[in-house]
Amino acid sequence: MDTGTRLAIAAAFVWLGMVLAISFVEAPLKFRAPGVTLRIGLGIGRLVFRALNVFEYVFAVVIAAALFTHETSTSLNIALCVAVGALLTQTIVVRPLLSRHSSAVLEGDEERRSKAHLAYVALELVKVIGLVWTGVELVGG
């Protein structure tokens, strides 16, 4: 196995670990911490998810660059496209909706719930599937 493939494997699994740790552990737990209000939790969430998304794009570029000179299987290409497509949809479509909603909450309008949050979580699950699939394809390929 060459260095580029090893780098792609590492990037895929670190990316997966970050998504699992932040989206499915940190995000829900921060609202249960003593003294963390909805306003504080949303403020923290904005910062954390903005940083996560930057790292995710870096990992996507690292994987693509590491595999650029390789012949890759259709299955690997689809798996990576699933993960990157979910990320693009989250950051281009869903996150602006969440930002508008969280801004309204931060300004005191806490009456309505956002369906965009459910879409974001669903896309996180799609991304996790894509990243697991990508990692398996890279290790097995």
Describe it:
With 141 residues, this protein is an all-alpha fold. The chain has one domain (3-140). It is built from four helices and no strands. The chain has helices at residues 3-30, 38-67, 74-106, 115-140. The mean pLDDT is 91. It comes from Mycolicibacterium hodleri.
Note the main attributes of this structure.
elongated; 141 residues; single chain
Describe what is shown at a glance.
The protein is mainly alpha-helical and 141 residues long.
Largest sheet: none
Summing up helix and strand content along with how strands pair, one would put the structural category as mainly alpha
Number of domains: 1
- How many H/I helices? 4
- Rg over CA atoms, rounded to whole Å, is 17 Å
Low-confidence stretches: none
β-strand percent reads: under 5%
**DSSP summary, beta strand count:** 0
Would you tell me the overall average pLDDT? 91
The percentage helix is over 70%
Inertia-based shape:
elongated
| Helix and strand element order | HHHH
